[in-house]
């Protein structure tokens, strides 16, 4: 959006209205790029701080009025001086450039593969990313027990070694998320209340 086109007569009228003469109750502070005018006004003739007000462009529908953040700051008193037209034009350019840079950054992010996507088939040969939590070596040994290919090895093992191996299998099958046993107060039960001796 560019500066509103104004005739020389309009520019002279605006300069005249910006003069803060003692008999005036309101004077012009400035305009925005949409043609809205911003005014100072005195609510009474008594010496008080001048208030600030917006007079919208009559050619724009009331629901379509857009006020820039710098004019909002001026209206609320957080900005002491009204923004100039070159400053408003620079702010519009900055917002346009920011939108273009954000769209380019979004396009770059969309082009990169996401971590949440499923892995490609090339990684499955290594056993990476296929969603299995267990190792393949222990699973192969258990499958050998189920199918019977490990029967000969079982017969050759001594009784002590069999006990150790079965203990290892039991440790693997225990649920790590199950409630742990062996807390100091786990078996404690409250007893009936028995009052102590009264001291007199």
From TrEMBL:
<dbReference type="Pfam" id="PF05071">
    <property type="entry name" value="NDUFA12"/>
</dbReference>
<dbReference type="InterPro" id="IPR052618">
    <property type="entry name" value="ComplexI_NDUFA12"/>
</dbReference>
<dbReference type="InterPro" id="IPR007763">
    <property type="entry name" value="NDUFA12"/>
</dbReference>
<dbReference type="GO" id="GO:0045271">
    <property type="term" value="C:respiratory chain complex I"/>
</dbReference>
<protein>
    <recommendedName>
        <fullName>NADH dehydrogenase [ubiquinone] 1 alpha subcomplex subunit</fullName>
    </recommendedName>
</protein>
<comment type="similarity">
    <text>Belongs to the complex I NDUFA12 subunit family.</text>
</comment>
<dbReference type="GO" id="GO:0005739">
    <property type="term" value="C:mitochondrion"/>
</dbReference>
<feature type="compositionally biased region" description="Basic and acidic residues">
    <location>
        <begin position="137"/>
        <end position="176"/>
    </location>
</feature>
<feature type="region of interest" description="Disordered">
    <location>
        <begin position="119"/>
        <end position="200"/>
    </location>
</feature>
<dbReference type="GO" id="GO:0032981">
    <property type="term" value="P:mitochondrial respiratory chain complex I assembly"/>
</dbReference>
């Amino acid at each position: 959006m560019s500066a509103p086109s104004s005739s020389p007569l309009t520019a002279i009228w605006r300069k005249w209205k910006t003069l803060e003469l003692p008999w005036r109750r309101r004077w012009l502070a400035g305009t925005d790029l949409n043609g809205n005018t911003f005014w100072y006004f005195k609510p009474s003739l008594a010496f008080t701080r001048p208030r600030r007000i917006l007079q919208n462009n009559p050619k724009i529908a009331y629901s379509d009025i857009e006020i820039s953040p710098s004019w909002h700051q001026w209206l609320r008193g957080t900005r002491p001086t009204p923004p100039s037209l070159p400053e408003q034009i620079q702010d519009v350019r900055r917002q346009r450039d920011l939108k273009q840079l954000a769209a380019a950054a979004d396009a770059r992010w969309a082009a990169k593969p996401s971590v949440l996507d499923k892995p490609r088939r090339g990684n499955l040969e290594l056993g990476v990313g296929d969603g299995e939590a267990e190792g393949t070596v222990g699973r192969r040994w258990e499958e050998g027990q189920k199918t019977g290919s490990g029967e000969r090895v079982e017969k050759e093992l001594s009784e002590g070694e069999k006990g150790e191996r079965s203990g290892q299998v039991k440790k693997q099958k225990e649920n790590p998320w199950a409630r742990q046993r062996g807390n100091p107060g786990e078996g404690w039960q409250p007893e009936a209340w028995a009052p102590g001796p009264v001291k007199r």
